[in-house]
């Protein structure tokens, strides 16, 4: 693409510059956009497992749970109204991501992040003050709009600001903040469950104003990316920003590549139509399959239903929330492992190792549940078996957290050329939210009917996605974002979709 140009023999350019404190701080601030996503993932499952919340808003579920303590363990939480409360956020995020694409492309990345923070803030206030299911759903929809804008803009911002050699680690900062948000929510849920009276769940939800305020204030002080500044006609400001983030005045070559890419962007009237052209098919497949498979790992079964799941499996109220804290801690620590490893071992290695580890743990979990509850769902687990199950779930969560969790956002955000980057990221976010919505809406129903076989169901998708990565995903480690087409050009399958001429910029060739 025109953002990086191809040099002799297809080599990747090495732009001048160093890693600066300015770029590190900017990326750290932007990455806090993951806090709102993570906090919501963590808090929603904990709140829906609290008796007072269920009694106030979902009394049918509460009474069924109380009356069926010795009956089918798989079906006690099965309620479409309850799952609608959780999943409404994701369908709202899906729809919001398309509006976020326009804002990100035409108004800048930081404006999208700001809109996301403000909308999430309003949704939090409505949810915390809710007195009926309508207010709950309205608040969740606004939370979804906020998350949709943040998830669309933050990965793009991080990929554009980060130097190539640290792009993986800095981009995973988004996922790290997501895991911090999940862990914080789990800890808060554990604490608020001990509050006497009926206000504990409100405190859990209301404290979401803290991550919302962090990202809102952060968006105000964030600098915009050079790519975004150039695309909006601020070339001189982009030059100064590039000098600041690269720590050198020798930025002319990189600036010129970005200007050429921007000119190509301006020549494209409809990036949504352009993204369907054959030479963008490799990237389009990434935007569709990576977020789809990320959700079909079954991770959200653990993340936003962890307390409900553990309670279903026989853990007590307090133990179920503490178990969620344990998995949240593992999630955070394993994400740090990914930050350390991603630019050293590469994206593909982590994808493959994580897939194999998830597959093994899921199969064993399914076998254990089958032995304990059978098809009837009636039975109990011994304390030692429950602890073993918790350990296996932690093994599964760790595998996801250093592979498909962060890389599911990193890889799509770095493979799109500038002219279709905002549209590509919107597809990534919308596909992610679509499948998150489907999994969230169907999980409790599927657990009731597929029983322990649900884990074998997700394991089958882990097999498919691991094969997809092995055969169809090139390694993108250390490749400058404006030279990414070279990774596709060398791939045994996708190279047939790319133009042959390597003497001019890819984006300009694609317009020919």
Structure, described:
74% of the residues lie in helices and 0% in strands. It is an all-alpha fold. Helix 1 crosses helix 8 and helix 6 runs antiparallel to helix 10. The N terminus and C terminus are likely disordered. Belongs to the major facilitator superfamily. Sugar transporter (TC 2.A.1.1) family. InterPro entries: MFS_dom, MFS_STP/MST-like_plant, MFS_sugar_transport-like, MFS_trans_sf, STP/PLT_plant, Sugar/inositol_transpt, Sugar_transporter_CS. This is Sugar transport protein MST6-like.
Write a brief structural summary.
With 512 residues, the chain is mostly helical. The protein has 25 helices and no strands.
Question: What is the topology?
Answer:
Elements: H1 21-31, H2 33-48, H3 51-57, H4 59-67, H5 80-106, H6 109-128, H7 133-161, H8 167-192, H9 200-206, H10 209-221, H11 226-231, H12 235-246, H13 252-266, H14 271-274, H15 281-296, H16 299-303, H17 306-312, H18 317-345, H19 347-373, H20 383-401, H21 404-415, H22 421-450, H23 453-472, H24 485-489, H25 506-510
- Can you summarize the main beta sheet? none
CATH architecture label: Up-down Bundle
CATH superfamily: MFS general substrate transporter like domains
Order of helices and strands: HHHHHHHHHHHHHHHHHHHHHHHHH
Net shape: globular
Q: Which regions contain 5 or more consecutive residues with pLDDT less than 50? A: 1-10, 501-512
Q: Can you tell me the number of structural domains?
A: 1
CATH topology: Growth Hormone, Chain: A
Tally of alpha and pi helices: 25
Keywords: Membrane, Sugar transport, Symport, Transmembrane, Transmembrane helix, Transport
Transmembrane segments: 19-39, 87-104, 111-130, 170-188, 200-222, 284-308, 320-342, 349-369, 389-411, 423-446, 452-473
Subcellular location: Membrane
Membrane topology: Multi-pass membrane protein
């Amino acid at each position: 693409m025109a953002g990086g140009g191809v040099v002799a023999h297809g080599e990747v350019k090495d732009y001048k510059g160093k890693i600066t404190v300015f770029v590190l701080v900017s990326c750290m601030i932007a990455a806090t956009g993951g806090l709102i996503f993570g906090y919501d993932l963590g808090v929603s499952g904990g709140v829906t497992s609290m008796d007072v919340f269920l009694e106030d808003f979902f009394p049918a579920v509460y009474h069924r749970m109380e009356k069926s303590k010795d009956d089918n363990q798989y079906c006690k939480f099965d309620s479409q109204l309850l799952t609608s409360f959780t999943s409404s956020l994701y369908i709202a995020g899906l729809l919001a991501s398309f509006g976020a694409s326009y804002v990100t492309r035409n108004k800048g990345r930081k404006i999208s992040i700001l809109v996301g923070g403000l909308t999430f803030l309003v949704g939090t206030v409505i949810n915390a003050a809710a007195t009926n299911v309508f207010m709950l759903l309205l608040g969740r929809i606004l939370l979804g709009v906020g998350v949709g804008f943040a998830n669309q803009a933050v990965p793009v911002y991080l990929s554009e600001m980060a130097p190539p050699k640290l792009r993986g680690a800095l981009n995973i900062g988004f996922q790290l903040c997501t895991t911090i948000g999940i862990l914080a929510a789990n800890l808060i849920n554990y604490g608020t469950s001990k509050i006497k009276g009926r206000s504990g769940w409100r405190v859990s939800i209301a404290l979401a104003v803290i991550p919302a305020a962090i990202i809102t204030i952060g968006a105000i002080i964030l600098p915009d990316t050079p790519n975004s500044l150039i695309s909006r006609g601020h070339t001189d400001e982009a030059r100064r920003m590039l000098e600041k983030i690269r720590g050198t005045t020798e930025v002319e070559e990189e600036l010129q590549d970005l200007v050429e890419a921007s000119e190509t962007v301006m020549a494209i009237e409809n990036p949504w139509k352009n993204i369907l052209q054959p030479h963008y098919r490799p990237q389009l497949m990434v935007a569709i399959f990576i977020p789809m498979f990320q959700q079909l790992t079954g991770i959200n079964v653990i993340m936003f239903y962890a307390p409900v799941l553990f309670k279903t499996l026989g853990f007590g109220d307090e133990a179920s929330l503490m178990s969620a804290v344990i998995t949240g801690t593992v999630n955070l620590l394993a994400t740090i492992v990914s930050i350390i490893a991603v630019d050293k071992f590469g994206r593909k290695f982590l994808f493959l190792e994580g897939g194999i580890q998830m597959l093994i743990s899921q199969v064993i979990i399914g076998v254990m549940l089958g032995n304990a509850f059978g098809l009837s769902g009636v039975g109990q687990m011994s304390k030692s078996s429950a602890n073993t199950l918790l350990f296996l779930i932690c093994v599964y969560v760790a595998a996801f957290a250093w592979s498909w969790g962060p890389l599911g956002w990193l890889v799509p955000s770095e493979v799109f050329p500038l002219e279709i980057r905002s549209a590509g990221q919107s597809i990534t976010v919308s596909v992610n939210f679509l499948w998150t919505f489907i999994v969230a809406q169907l999980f409790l129903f599927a657990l009731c009917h597929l029983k322990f076989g649900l884990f074998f169901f997700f394991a089958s998708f882990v097999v498919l996605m691991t094969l997809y990565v092995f055969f169809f995903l090139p390694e993108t480690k250390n490749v400058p974002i404006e030279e990414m087409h070279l990774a596709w050009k060398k791939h045994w399958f996708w190279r047939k979709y790319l133009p042959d001429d390597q003497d001019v910029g890819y984006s300009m060739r694609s317009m020919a």
